[in-house]
Amino acid sequence: MNGSSVANTPPSVKSKEDQGLNGHDEKENPFAEYMWMENEEDFNRQVEEELQEQDFLDRCFQEMLDEEDQDWFIPARDLPQAMGQLQQQLNGLSVSDGHNSEDILSKSNLNPDAKEFIPGVKY
């Protein structure tokens, strides 16, 4: 080895004398991984507040959905059973397809030669 390579060693490399017995630097806190426990109460309080806020939002959202369900008209829920029977009868009705139209015209009291009614026009 020549002398120039020893002089150019980076300052981050430390000798064994500079390091403590446990392998950590003397300036580094050996309890650094446990420092979060120092603020454990604050952390617990913050997490509890977040959980309470989330619970509050969930309850508000559920209440909003319940109100929305009450506002919507749902026939199966909102109509009485008699209305269901009436609905079935209405569904059973059909419009005539023209087979009985001659019978209806022969029995009609309307004048087929009358002028078309136009509101607001006097004849």
Automatic annotation (TrEMBL):
<comment type="similarity">
    <text>Belongs to the PAIP2 family.</text>
</comment>
<keyword id="KW-0810">Translation regulation</keyword>
<feature type="compositionally biased region" description="Polar residues">
    <location>
        <begin position="1"/>
        <end position="12"/>
    </location>
</feature>
<dbReference type="InterPro" id="IPR009818">
    <property type="entry name" value="PAM2_motif"/>
</dbReference>
<protein>
    <submittedName>
        <fullName>Poly(A) binding protein interacting protein 2B</fullName>
    </submittedName>
</protein>
<dbReference type="Pfam" id="PF07145">
    <property type="entry name" value="PAM2"/>
</dbReference>
<feature type="compositionally biased region" description="Basic and acidic residues">
    <location>
        <begin position="14"/>
        <end position="29"/>
    </location>
</feature>
<dbReference type="GO" id="GO:0000900">
    <property type="term" value="F:mRNA regulatory element binding translation repressor activity"/>
</dbReference>
<keyword id="KW-0832">Ubl conjugation</keyword>
<dbReference type="InterPro" id="IPR040396">
    <property type="entry name" value="PAIP2-like"/>
</dbReference>
<dbReference type="GO" id="GO:0005737">
    <property type="term" value="C:cytoplasm"/>
</dbReference>
<dbReference type="GO" id="GO:0045947">
    <property type="term" value="P:negative regulation of translational initiation"/>
</dbReference>
<feature type="region of interest" description="Disordered">
    <location>
        <begin position="1"/>
        <end position="29"/>
    </location>
</feature>
